[in-house]
Design brief:
InterPro entries: HATPase_C_sf, MORC_ATPase. GO terms for molecular function: ATP hydrolysis activity. Pfam families: HATPase_c_3. With 131 residues, the protein is an alpha+beta fold. The protein is 31% helix and 24% strand. It has a two-stranded antiparallel sheet with strand order 1-2. Strand 1 and strand 2 form a beta hairpin.
Length: 131
Amino acid sequence: IAQMHPEYLTTLSQTHSSWLFGAVAELIDNACDAGAKRLEISIQKGTLKSPEVSEVPMLCFLDDGLGMTHKDIVKMVSFGHKKPEQDDPEQIGRFGVGFKTGVMRLGRGALVLTQSKETRSMALLSTGYNE
């Protein structure tokens, strides 16, 4: 079993450091890989129970793609794919790092809610939670 230090999420955020829209493009590409015909991107206000900050902006992506099973979402938050050179139409992403690099460039965390025909799942990646 491979382990990763939580600070690696911060390292990943530097992948798109020269071009912020590359991070957004990664997330759009994942929606397309999932067969999405519709994608909404919005900025909403989130509320925190913190004395220093009460509201934070949230960048939201909502699509009508196939959704992910629990197994799929575990693969999404894991690092790398076994055979990136193979073109697998069932696989979302090619190398297994785009989602992580994209969301860590855009913010301090990502909450993913997904639904397939069989399951509903969620995943959290957060540098703030690690602190």
